[in-house]
Amino acid sequence: MAKSRREMLLELLELEGAKIGSLGETSETTPEASKSKSVSETVSETKGDFEDVPLTKPKKVLTEKQLEALKRGQEKRNANREARAEARRKEEEERKRVMEEKLVKKAIAVKKKQIKREELLNEISDDDTVETTPTPLQKKPVVKKNPEEVIQQPPRKVIYFF
Fold this sequence. Notes:
0% strand, 4 helices, mainly alpha, single chain
């Protein structure tokens, strides 16, 4: 709740019970006359005094050098923006190019594997003279150890630490 300058001045006058004559009004500046008026009457009379006071300060006019410096700064800022945009664009193009190269290499590798598989299938299908019955794998016989051959290890000693 920001108050305007006028509202703050009126509130100040109301709180202080200031004399109207000290604010520039010439009529009834005697203490008896000001005592007879109420605070609201004093405030209503002083409202007209502050209407010609501007609420904000006018902006300071810039000098030639300041204007030139401002213009140079704006040009430099725009140049930096363009340079950053160009750098981002080049970086994006480089990233796309690298990704495309990787994609092509991967596609070539997949295609080579596919061709090799097809050649292998063609060789197998062309070579029908080979036995078609699969040979069963022979299991190695399980060698059983004699209990006498197994070396008996002596029992371990138990060591206690205190």
